[in-house]
Design goal:
Layout: E1 7-11, E2 15-17, E3 25-26, E4 30-34, E5 37-42, E6 54-57, E7 62-65, E8 67-72, E9 79-80, E10 85-86, H1 88-93, E11 97-102, H2 115-131, E12 138-140, E13 143-144, H3 152-160, E14 165-169, H4 177-189, E15 193-196, H5 211-217, E16 221-222, H6 234-243, E17 247-251, H7 256-268, E18 275-278, H8 291-302, H9 307-313, H10 316-322, E19 338-342, H11 352-357, E20 363-369, E21 372-375, E22 389-391
Parallel strand pairs: 1-6, 2-7, 8-11, 11-12, 13-14, 14-15, 15-16, 16-17, 17-18
Antiparallel strand pairs: 1-4, 2-3, 4-5, 6-22, 7-19, 9-10, 19-20, 20-21
Helix pairs in contact: 4-5, 5-6, 6-7, 8-9
Amino acid sequence: MQPSFDRLLIRNLGLVLTGDLAAPIADADTILVEDGRISAIGRASSMALPDGITVIDAKGSAIMPGMIDNHSHPVMGDWTPRQNQLGWIDSTLHGGVTTLVSAGEVHVPGRPRDVIGVKALAITAQRAFSAFSPTGMKVLAGALILEHGLTEADFVELAAAGITLIGEVGLGSVKDGATGRQMVAWARQNGMTSMTHVGGHSIPGSARIGAETVLEVDADVAAHLNGGPTSLPEAELRLICEESRRGLEIVHNGNMRAGLFVLDTVRDVGALDRLVLGTDGPAGSGVQPLGMLRLLTMLASLGSLAPEVAICLATGNVARLRGLSDRGRIAVGLAADLVFIDQAMGGAGKGVLDSMTLGNMPGIGMILVDGVPRITRSRNTPPSILVPELLAG
């Protein structure tokens, strides 16, 4: 008989990494999940634990929220024409990502560039991924690509149709600060979050977007400050970090030297709560199922950022910036999108956080989406030392 996951007890946790910058590590070893949401967190010794429910014995492994990739480029289905690769979304779930946020379905072959076409593309992508979740991945798609000719009425219409995202300003024909700022304002008035390209040309037809334009557009996220993939000069990056009051993003598919510069600058200006992570993939550099896990490990090891804090940049920070109040942290009432991690076999370090500080990615032993186990041991990460076990009630 298949186990029921209506009520799920997770016990014997070695570490609970919350995704919350205010308290990145919880004093807990037990989590209770009911109807796909976290209903209790604490110590087993002080919790009233029910009998006869499905149990996951964590065996001492750590747990973190499922990561939210703030910058992805889905198309349709689990396929990317950029690399002609199937199954990239499923593979990304195996890398600990449980939510993808679209920065624009820009790689659709023959992508429409007229007003009717871009609106239709956004609605189609949003509808398709609302009904299609590869291996349980939550794909927030339908990011409108800004083209000249869009009016305020179009944003009202799209919001009513369920569109909540604006793709990177600069991917379409709108590349100037004044037009971008006006359209971003229309989007914001209609409850949409937005982002703007930052850096050199990314693909044919794109444009260099410098600091002056980024600040004028005033999108909710200054995307890939470390380049998508080509970064701006450091003086422009510093100007954006110092002058912007919006979200600031580092991506995997960018310039890592620039990424470390951005991290240092963000810390200097006290804006760590606005720093978010993404992959900017699939892209010309390929599909990186472990891109988010690699990125936060690189920031922890090369950027002297505590691993538990780096995890917050890929989880709680993204959720807050994007208005995803139902995920991104391990907290009562939130979706049980949970990733069990531990130190990878054979590497340096004493425990999972120490190993990440030394530059080694953790291994993933199990992933839950809405309280349901979607994968056991990841096929992509190195094997973890400790592996959770699903038990009978």
